[in-house]
């Protein structure tokens, strides 16, 4: 786990989302069928070009709640949804969602699917 460097050639689609302090936003990442069986992940891009691992979801069609983040993966529709809850201005930033094969293995790999630019404004 930890930090991953995001290759530019994996860039697929950029999404800009605006939320309000104390509110929530939903972000959907559509992924290719070739990645359907792999866990989905979310990471936050840091200033040094590394993507800081936030969390992942491995099951289909079941919400996973992790405090501020809620994750849902519908493999039939190939849509990974992330909900950011109880937003603060500190949540503003660049995030990436993607698919990962076995990241505990030296042969594991990650595919970055969507770049998410989140802006949180005052109430």
UniProtKB/TrEMBL annotation:
GO terms for cellular component: plasma membrane. It is found in: Membrane. This is Immunoglobulin domain-containing protein. InterPro entries: CD300_family_receptors, Ig-like_dom_sf, Ig-like_fold, Ig_sub, Ig_V-set. It comes from Pygocentrus nattereri. GO terms for molecular function: transmembrane signaling receptor activity. Residues 14-121 form the Immunoglobulin domain. Signal peptide: none annotated. It comes from the Eukaryota. Keywords: Membrane, Transmembrane. SMART domains: IG. Pfam families: V-set. Its main location: membrane.
């Amino acid at each position: 786990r930890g930090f991953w460097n995001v290759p530019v050639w994996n860039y697929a689609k950029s999404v800009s989302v605006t939320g309000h302090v104390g509110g929530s936003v939903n972000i959907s990442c559509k992924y290719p069928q070739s990645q359907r069986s792999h866990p989905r992940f979310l990471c936050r891009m840091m200033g040094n070009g590394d993507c800081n691992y936030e969390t992942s979801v491995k099951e289909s069609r079941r919400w996973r709640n992790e405090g501020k983040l809620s994750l849902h993966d519908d493999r039939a529709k190939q849509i990974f949804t992330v909900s950011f809850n109880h937003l603060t201005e500190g949540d503003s930033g660049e995030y990436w969602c993607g698919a990962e094969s076995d990241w505990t293995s030296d042969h594991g790999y990650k595919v970055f699917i969507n770049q998410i630019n989140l802006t949180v404004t005052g109430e």
